[in-house]
Design a protein that fits this description.
Radius of gyration: 18 Å
Order of helices and strands: HEEEEEEEEE
Keywords: Endoplasmic reticulum, Membrane, Signal, Transmembrane, Transmembrane helix
CATH superfamily: Immunoglobulins
Number of helices: 1
Largest sheet: 6 strands, mixed
InterPro entries: TRAP_alpha
Number of strands: 9
Number of domains: 1
Function: Is probably involved in a pathway contributing to genomic integrity.
Helix content: 10-25%
Subcellular location: Endoplasmic reticulum membrane
CATH topology: Immunoglobulin-like
Main location: endoplasmic reticulum
Distance between the termini: 39 Å
Length: 172
């Protein structure tokens, strides 16, 4: 996908770091990751996304109509986690891949208890030329100790289409 394929994930991470910096200023007692530890923190969370309105032939983004994504997050951690935000972007399929459109980033603040799962609805609207694109969705989750992780939620090809028209449609 090229070197900019995960630019949207990086942008989401920057937003989380800004939010974390605000939290650190408000709560100086929260732990901060020590770079000298050389330990790579991880989180045991499974993320999957479905599109309830999709067709057999794949996901279609209808211009002007909201697209609903159901993001299912399973917390396999011994402590609760918090889902902070969900966002994404649309990319070209050609190499090198180019960012076509950044989607709305939605804040949630939903806590998921240990060893449980929740499904969160993420809606977005497109107004683009009809074409096939790559859709990348990501979610940011925070552990109890304040560490924030960016988790890929969806990475697949979608089709941008115009809404169906009828001669009986009053808008025509």
């Amino acid at each position: 996908m090229g070197k900019f394929a995960f630019l949207s994930l990086a942008l989401l991470s920057v937003q989380a770091l800004v939010a974390r910096a605000e939290d650190a200023a408000a709560n100086p007692d929260k732990p901060v990751l020590d770079d000298a530890a050389n330990a790579v923190p991880q989180v045991n969370v499974d993320v999957s996304t479905t599109f309830p309105d999709s067709e057999v032939f794949g996901v279609k983004l209808v211009n002007g109509l909201p697209t609903t994504a159901q993001v299912k997050i399973a917390n396999n951690e011994p402590d609760p986690i918090t889902v902070n935000i969900i966002g994404g972007s649309l990319w070209t399929l050609s190499e090198p891949s180019q960012n076509v459109h950044n989607l709305t980033v939605s804040r949630y603040g939903v806590e998921i208890d240990a060893k449980s799962e929740k499904t969160i609805t993420y809606n977005f609207v497109t107004e683009l030329l009809p074409q096939d694109l790559s859709l990348n969705l990501a979610t940011m989750v925070a552990k109890k100790d304040g560490l924030i992780f960016t988790m890929p939620a969806y990475n697949g090809t979608v089709s941008v289409v115009e809404p169906e028209m009828s001669i009986f449609d009053p808008q025509v």
